[in-house]
Structures are given as C-alpha cells and as structure tokens.
Amino acid sequence: MPASSASARPEEAPGFPAATAPRAVSTAELDAAVPTCRACPRLVAWREEAARTKRKAFLDWEYWARPVPGFGPPDAPLAIVGLAPAAHGGNRTGRVFTGDPSGDALFAALHDVGLASQSTATHRGDGMELYGVRITMPVHCAPPDNRPSTTERDTCRPWLARELELLRPTLRTVVVLGGFGWQALLPVLADAGWRLPRPRPAFGHGTEVLLGDERGEGELRLVGCYHPSRRNMSTRTVTPEMLRDALRRGAETAGLPRP
C-alpha cells in the first residue's frame, strides 16, 4: 500500500531541495545534505536500478547510488558546471565526473593545466585534490539516457543556487560544459542578482560572457566549452587541446596562477 503524504519522508518531497539547500551554511554542510535527497522518483529509481544491475566491469563495486555532491575547495575562484552524474560513473563512485570517459578527459585536462593533483580519478578516496576549482552540476542524480526532465532540473536547482551563493565571495569564472549546463545555469545566476545580457547569450564553445553584479560587488565571467562526452571526444567535436584551452582561459580569468 503506498505511503500517505503525511507519512512520506521529507527528502522524498519535490520541495525538499528548496527547503533544505538554503539552510546549508557551508559547502561541507551542503555536500552532506545533497546525498539524502529523494525528491525525483524517476531519478531515484534509475540510480538505484543501475546500482543493482551494475556493469560487468564493476560487479565487485558497491555503488554510491545517491545524489552526487560537488567536489573541490569551498573558496574556489573557478567553478566548472557539467550536466549530471553518469549511471556507472559518479553514481558508482560518489564523486562527480569520476569513473567514466567524460571524467577521464576532464581530470586529465585539469591535471595538464595545473588544477588537479593527479590525472586520473577513480573513487572518492583516491587522493585527488583540486586547486582553486570546484566542479558541480545542475542535476545531482544520474538520469536515464543522460537526459533529465525539465521538472527534474528545476527541482534540483536550489542545490546549485546555494552552492554558487556559498562560492560567491571568491568566485570569478565559471566554465560551463555543454548547452544543458549553460541553459540551467543562466536563470540561477539571474535570480542571484547577476545581470544577464538581453537576449540571453546562446551557448557555444569559446563563448565568453561577462556578467555584472546588481549590487555592484564584482563581475562573473562565463566560458562555454563543449561537454567532453564520449561521443563528442570520439567525433572530435571537442578535443583534449580544446578542453585544456577552455580550462586555461577559466583559470586565467579567475586569477589562478599559471602552472
């Protein structure tokens, strides 16, 4: 018999992120709250099914199978915004962009430009450190076919909004990987008081947009980069050098030291 709304756990309610995210007073507190969320039934079912069925290569893994929090220092001047965890990547390892081809490309590029301590990321305890950069995403659960619904994106939005708010004192640049992340990010920034050009800027690889703060407290630069998905890398829509160039540009405009 299905549970009544009165007996449902708060973290299962669509409004859970909106009520919970603003209460986090640090990125550490936010990172602890994100994995408790069960607000999107389709995503909960998918992430847990992937953990049950597994891939042959990962039969000995105990999958994370929860929402994946952001990763990186709490005072980063540079942020990277992707799409969502992969079913057998972050959903398995518990760390964003870890354990899948996209992550292999991204962490190798981060290491090449001096933003990561090592070139490969395999699991949460592998010793990986990021220098001045924090990685996050607009959807924290692995979606079927890597395609979150509009409702799922909007339900998850408060996590991203609060994370960027907590980073705001030091944040100078955001490298956005892919059109989905770009479109999800713009309304978050507008709601946070960043002035967006009109019409709103379209995503493109190498696109740069400088946003002013309505409170007059600084500027934020967006840098567009094609997502390093397996498909994009195999078709050379984005190459390792293109990815490194976008990260170098992000680091430069964020004021990070050059390696």
Q: How many strand units?
A: 6
* Helical amount: 25-40%
Oligomer: single chain
Topology as H/E string? Answer: HHHEHHEHEHEEEHH
Q: Can you list the strand order of the major beta sheet?
A: 2-1-3-6-5-4
Shape, principal axes of CA atoms: globular
Question: How far apart lie the N and C ends?
Answer: 59 Å
Specify the CATH class. Answer: Alpha Beta
CATH superfamily: Uracil-DNA glycosylase-like domain
Plain-language structure description:
The structure is a single chain. The longest helix is centred in the middle third of the chain and has 18 residues, at 150-167. The chain has a single domain (14-194, 203-254), classed as Uracil-DNA glycosylase-like domain (Uracil-DNA Glycosylase, subunit E, 3-Layer(aba) Sandwich), CATH 3.40.470. A six-stranded mixed β-sheet has the order 2-1-3-6-5-4, sandwiched between helices. With 259 residues, the chain is an alpha/beta fold. The protein has helices at residues 16-20, 27-33, 41-53, 90-93, 101-112, 150-167, 179-191, 230-234, 240-254; strands at 78-81, 133-136, 173-177, 194-195, 208-213, 219-225. Helix 6 crosses helix 7. 36% of the residues lie in helices and 11% in strands. Mean pLDDT is 95; it is low at 1-6.
